[in-house]
Batch of 2 targets.
Target 1
Amino acid sequence: MVDLSRVGAVFTGTPPYTVSRAKIAEFADAVGATSPLHHDPDAAVAAGYPDVVAPPTFAVVIAQRAESEYITDPASGIDFSRVVHANESFTHTRPLVAGDVVSTAVHVDAINERAGITMVTTRTEIADDGGAPVATVVSTLAVRGEGA
Amino acid sequence: MSLSAQTEVGTELFSTTVAVDRARLVRYAGASGDFNPIHWNERFATEVGLPGVIAHGMLTMGIAGAALTDWLGDPGRLVSYGCRFTRPVVVPDPGEVEVAVRGVVGAVDAEAGTARVDLTVSVDGATVLGKAQAHVRLA
């Protein structure tokens, strides 16, 4: 059973994540993003960025790593084998670039139960090493109950 | 064509297809760190009641987002992007599925300097992402 009392909890125990050129290139290849700004530091600098730019959904790598502190905590009551990803959204203050060292705060925004399905919504705030906001990732998981 | 304050709502910006096979699922698993076996292990996937190995929802969303930012030219123009995962994408072995992505202008806000792009993402004519929308900066 998903613990409904965890709404409002905040998880900040995941160590900072360093965005690398190699990981950006790997992710870009996996999703078929061909812009040179993902692969070529010179092209990225020419376009006004400090280094290669991450594809738009790259922040999920950072967010899912941070969400796991909540999701995999046995006290949360989330049986991951019964989880389906329901929706996801990204809001970027600025794009992630190689060299960023970012920290995360995962907020449990909502837990709603209906017809045997529990919808769990987390919001991960990603900030740079100066504390400035970079991106917000909102993810909703649908957890099927025992009878569903 | 560019996306500016003068672009009319309803304009199709791009339409493309991307082939997804098992190798791409493994590649995305490694790139993203999402190693859920439903995305690469047929036995596991069928044991938990799925019709077969399915693509990561985030891979499909990532492919559609990349199609948009590749078209824009500058990935930094994307301000926000969201969707619902409405239908699993079953990836056969051997073989592949074609993920079709179409981007249409849904709204233009000249004052804010942004436009909403509505993405239609489908496999074999069936939509697999719901309400896939991105907000991007105008050129």
Target 2
Amino acid sequence: MEINQQIAIVTGGASGLGADTVRALAAKGAKVAVLDLNFELAKAIAEEVGGLAVQVDVADGDSVESALATVKAELGTARIVMNVAGIGIGRKITNKKGPHPLDSFLKVVNVNLTGTFDVCRLASTEMIALDPLNEDGERGVFVNVASIFGYDGPVGNTAYAASKAGVIGMTLPMARDLAPYGIRVMTICPGVFDTPLAKAETGQEGFDRLIATVPFPKRGGNPQDFAKLACHIVENTMMNGECIRIDGAMRMGLMI
Amino acid sequence: MNLNNISVLITGGASGLGAGAAKLFIDKGAKVTIFDRNLELAQTTATELGCAAVQCDVADETSVLAALAEAGKINGTPRILVNCAGIDITGRTATKGGPQPREALTQQIAVNLTGTFNICRLGADAIRELDDLEGEEQGVIVNVASIAGLDGPFGQTAYAATKAAVIGMTLPMARDLSAYGIRVVTIAPGVFNTPLAASVLRGEPDDYAGGVPFPKRAGKPAEFASIAVEICQNPMLNGEVIRLDGALRG
């Protein structure tokens, strides 16, 4: 679908991959709702692109419902939804301190997996009520964000890898569920990108060590390249039910 | 990589996905040379699109070397190699009529696998010899597999084997060429509106798209071209195989 004039939602849109995705969609003429836990940052990005900032905790069902209602009231029903919001923790399944706490595992799963699912189920329900856009009968598109950790997770990433593998696993059945309504579902699996989330996880030193293992290009990914692929997915109607790695051919080794 | 004025080689460029890719690369300002076994068709397509055509049998090393040299003379050594040349010989592994002929596999290996490998190894070797471009990237290889290489339908054992092999080459080749700033990405198309698909399906590809979840039609060569161009323009895409199939599983 053409991006121009469409209404788009980007969760986690206030920073990192999400912020550049907001910018790229806005540059192509979309009206973008920036949904983020951090309302101040969301407001700054929304102001920059003439979009709408909405506070949301994607792990909280009521918060997601009310955020989507705000978008609908202010902008209308979104045809483009990008689930970029995510968190990570580093913790082995067991170590000297004891077993991996269940609550931190569930926190990661609630944000990354349940949060993505929640936004998809509610936003697709609204999309189905819209008229189709073109001769293909296209109504909308979801771009979910997993991670290469969902395929090859390093030490200390059981919770994060589980949540991201969950997002990868949802892609095909969700695309099949929504195909009769002309709604596509695609997933992007980023490698190591130059974002606040990545650096919070690894520290600068760990980040540099990781980058040394990327075949080419030997650097952190530029969030703009992520955003460019996300826009391509929206524009290419044949893309559906697929997970695309964007990682400079990196495969995660044992350690971060 | 910025495509403007870049020399681009597209095998199987006389028709189908290759011709679709040629059109978009030309639109982006690239200098395109299409390789095809069928020179007459290649010349007709090239005249129509405004690019160069060179006869090439990708399965034959001598032919590939000669064609690469010719392309180099016309447009400069290609920095982008798009391997669309392919054949599809259908047939079941064994039937009442006997086993599938061995040649069904060897002929497809020659074109789909060895042909792709030939263009990659000889083309990348030539890129390696070029003066460096400004910036980090020196070349991009886009290979074409098929969703049959991941979930092959009946009657496609041999074809699926060759396409799975192209998928299998992707990561090690990307790793091999990373030191030279050359990326390798493979596209795995589903059912597309091409002469190859029409001949294999013995009918209009669109009529066989009923099993595609969405969009419920055969893919357009322009959509294939669009992801091929995105791959070339996006420096972070490397070593990956991308399905382009409207969520179809065979």
